[in-house]
Design a protein that fits this description.
The protein contains 11 helices and 21 strands. The protein has about 600 residues and is α/β, with parallel strands linked by helices. The strands form 4 sheets. Strands 5-4-3-2-1-7-6 form a 7-stranded parallel beta sheet, with helices on both faces. Helix 9 links the parallel strand 6 and strand 7. The longest helix is centred in the first third of the chain and has 37 residues.
């Protein structure tokens, strides 16, 4: 017996050792793969963002930077009332919050939401024909209703007669049509009992006990996991509703890391954190968390400079969600020029539509998408993959985008205002133009160009102007040479909410009527001064007050040594204030506002 027992023991030990080594190898491979794929901070670290190199960040952002044009879709239960409640017709996706209707009453819309005419392929093909490169759909808005089949709650599409999963159908259609599929997801939730600021009119949460934000965040992460594991690669998550106090920067960092752990290459907007609000309710800069800024219903006057990614989201009319009474549609020309404006400042344009409860895109929206697409079919090269204008100030006749390659630079001149004399002056351009032509028809003869003192003059063809915008292309060898704009140093006693990048005094001297210096609403006295850089002879001043009548008393002054000397005073200004006076030689001049009804706001000041 002993002759056979010993070898069997050794054999068992051998196999046991072999299985241990195999198991160890498998665990090592799984662990290594998991770490390599995740690329995030260890669980529970809410103090630092997922780390990546600059090259990795640029690679992740590449498709989005090149896209320039996205379609926003606000669709949900709020499309059922179509903006109307108790005789008022001015509501949209905020109807639950603005009316304070009981949540139990709002829940009844779920039984009426049956968009049987919804066709994901038709939606996506309309977007593609418009030139859209990515599509962002509301997976959950502030009402908490999920536009998908969630396993965590029945407050989603499962409660409706529709039953189908619109997000699954849109994801498949986007993949088929070459559009990047993206999701909007609200952080704030008026329906969920655990959102920290539960509404008094949330009668369905009456017996839920006190709100528990940790429990709510676990729920939100659970829904995000559903969204980010069911529909394939998601281009970006567009968070919103972060401004209320229950949401903190620390929670934003944690959520950012969590989403990146599910899809490491995904892009996340800055509203995942707590960005600083700017004009129009938008969030201008990326701040501590998030990959890009999101100004809302506004285009920043000068962008945010190199290295800051941003996207302006804007409506076609006055509402995000469908409102049957809202017929205040922006023209196709305005929409295309908004897209050009964003691109010329290094940003993206996210244009919104609000489909009906039947699942249809309104005809007015479809008509505008088609018009944008007709223009993009010819001029898309001047939008996709372009970077911001190299010119330091806005061009008097339109905008400029550019593409830089090893062969040189292409300047795309977007001409809004066609010169009556047929000569287009590109101010400050010092480079020699190798070739100039109309993007709409390269078979036409080259456009003649010549360098003049003021810049480059382009001789245009007669009858070539297009109503929306005409693109003139200048091909230049090597880097573009542009004469620097005169440096103007401006200062002011007050700036609206300290938002220098939006309302600083420099905007009163930039030659652009769309920008302005603004002060806090309660400001009754303020001054704005400018240093012209050298002593100059001044005999007049033009002032464009943004809101005529606010200024009630003012002084015009110049600096003499350490003192400001008043040489003229008066009462009100207006939008076209223009006055001359005996010539004064000085370097620094000041408008001193002694009294104002409300915070004074000045669009332009020109000392001449």
């Amino acid at each position: 017996m002993t002759i056979f027992i010993q070898p069997r023991r050794k054999l068992r030990r051998f196999y046991a050792s072999l299985w241990f080594l195999v198991a160890l190898a498998v665990c090592t491979i799984l662990f290594t793969t998991t770490v390599a794929q995740a690329r995030v901070e260890p669980p529970g670290d809410t103090n630092s963002i997922v780390r990546e190199s600059a090259a990795q960040h640029d690679a992740r952002m590449k498709w989005w930077r090149e896209a320039r044009f996205g379609l926003f879709i606000h669709w949900g239960l709020y499309s059922v009332p179509a903006g109307e409640w108790q005789g008022k017709t001015n509501y949209g996706e905020w109807i639950l919050e603005e009316t304070h209707m009981p949540v139990s009453e709002y829940e009844k819309y779920a039984g009426q939401f049956n968009p049987v005419q919804f066709n994901a392929t038709n939606w996506v093909r309309a977007a593609r024909a418009a030139g859209v490169k990515y599509l962002v759909i509301t997976s959950k808005h502030h009402d908490g209703f999920g536009l998908f089949r969630s396993d965590l709650t029945d407050w989603c599409i499962r409660r409706t007669p529709f039953q189908r999963d619109p997000l699954a159908e849109l994801a498949a259609a986007c993949k088929a049509e070459g559009i990047t599929f993206c999701l909007y997801h609200s952080i704030m939730d008026w329906h969920h009992p655990d959102w920290g600021l539960r509404r008094d009119w949330n009668d369905v949460a009456t017996h839920a006990g006190p709100p528990d934000m940790d429990r709510y965040v676990a729920y939100m992460k659970g829904q995000l996991k559903e969204l980010l594991t069911r529909y394939g690669p998601i281009g970006l998550v567009w968070f919103d509703g972060q401004w209320e106090s229950p949401w903190t920067s620390e929670r934003g960092v944690d959520l950012y890391n969590y989403v990146r752990s599910l899809q490491p290459d995904i892009i996340i907007n800055n509203r995942v954190g707590k960005p600083v609000a700017t004009a129009g309710g938008g969030m201008a800069e990326t701040g501590l968390v998030g990959d890009y800024g999101t100004p809302e219903q506004t285009i920043p006057p000068a962008g945010f400079g190199p290295g800051v990614d941003w996207e302006s989201c804007m409506t076609m009319n006055d509402h995000w969600g469908f409102n049957k009474a809202d017929q205040n549609w922006k023209s196709a020309q305005t929409l295309v020029r908004n897209l050009i404006d964003c691109s010329s400042k290094g940003g993206n344009y996210l244009l919104n539509i609000g489909p009906t409860s039947e699942g249809l895109i309104p005809d007015a929206s479809l008509a505008r998408l088609k018009a944008i697409g007709d223009w993009m079919q010819v001029n898309g090269e001047a939008i996709y993959g372009t970077s911001a204008s190299p010119f330091p100030r806005r061009l008097p006749w339109g905008r400029c985008t550019q593409k830089i390659s090893g062969d040189g630079t292409k300047l795309y001149l977007h001409v809004f205002d066609w010169p009556a004399d047929g000569y287009l002056l590109v101010p400050g351009l010092k480079s020699r133009v190798q070739k100039a032509y109309l993007l709409a028809d390269r078979s036409q003869p080259r456009l003649a160009t010549k360098n003049v003192k003021e810049g480059v003059q382009v001789t245009l063809l007669a009858n070539a102007a297009k109503e929306i915008s005409t693109t003139v292309v200048l091909e230049i060898k090597d880097a573009v040479s542009i004469e620097p704009a005169p440096k103007i140093v401006a200062s002011a006693s007050n700036i609206y909410q300290n938002q220098t990048s939006q309302y600083g005094p420099q905007f009163a001297f930039d030659g652009e009527p769309d920008t302005r210096w603004a002060t806090d609403d309660a400001t009754s006295q303020a001054w704005i001064a400018v240093d012209l850089g050298a002593v100059k002879t001044i005999h007049g001043v033009r002032i464009n007050e943004a809101f005529a009548g606010r200024v009630q008393n003012y002084e015009l002054q110049y600096r003499d040594g350490a003192a400001w000397k008043t040489f003229l005073s008066g009462a009100t200004l207006d939008a076209n204030f223009d006055i001359t006076f005996p010539a004064i030689q000085a370097r620094e001049f000041r408008l001193n506002i002694l009294s104002a009804k409300q915070g004074p706001t000045i669009r332009e000041i020109e000392w001449y």
